[in-house]
Amino acid sequence: MTTAVDTNILLDVLAGSLIEAQRADAALVAAKKAGGLCVSTICYAEVSRNFASIRDADEFFDSLSCRIDRIEREGAFLAGLFYEAYRQRGGKRDRILSDFLIAAHAQLNADRILTRDDRFFGSNFPRLKAIRPQDLG
């Protein structure tokens, strides 16, 4: 079972409170045991600002045994469809396209997504199973 990882989980590991970091780390370990971990290059970009070099960023993802996937054209198109549907349902502009790219990547490349934002993913992407760290801990 492949688990896509949302940016907020990785930021919890890197810069969250002690409790957030421990919960995120435990969830990543459990998800890794259940299968593999992956992120999109969008998530990689959002997390990479925490590192001084690409080598440091790569070492972090390697330490998690986390695969980094490119967003292919199909995923980009799907993200655009998701975003348009969200806006037509009255969704606010405070959601940025990267959220939809991360969701499209997860839907196409994983069985589920590990996120603290399960309400957003669960209500906007019905074919994508969203799980929280405490669901795995």
Q: What does it look like?
A:
- It is a single chain.
- Helix 1 crosses helix 2 and helix 5 packs across helix 6.
- The chain is 61% helix and 12% strand.
- The protein has one domain: 3-Layer(aba) Sandwich (Rossmann fold).
- The longest helix has 17 residues.
- The chain is α/β, with parallel strands linked by helices and 137 residues long.
- A five-stranded parallel β-sheet has the order 3-2-1-4-5.
- The two termini are 16 Å apart.
- The protein is built from eight helices and five strands; from the N terminus they run E-H-H-E-H-H-E-H-H-E-H-E-H.
Distance between the termini: 16 Å
According to CATH, the homologous superfamily is: 5'-nuclease
Q: Decide which structural class fits the backbone.
A: alpha/beta
The total beta strand count reads: 5
Question: Can you name the CATH architecture?
Answer: 3-Layer(aba) Sandwich
Helix run count:
8
Helix content: 55-70%
According to CATH, the fold-level topology is Rossmann fold
Radius of gyration: 14 Å
Tertiary shape: globular
The largest sheet is: 5 strands, parallel
Strand order of the largest sheet: 3-2-1-4-5
Average pLDDT value? Answer: 94
Strand content: 5-15%
Please trace the helix and strand order, writing H or E for each element.
EHHEHHEHHEHEH
* Total of domains: 1
CATH uppermost class: Alpha Beta
Low-confidence stretches: none
Oligomer: single chain
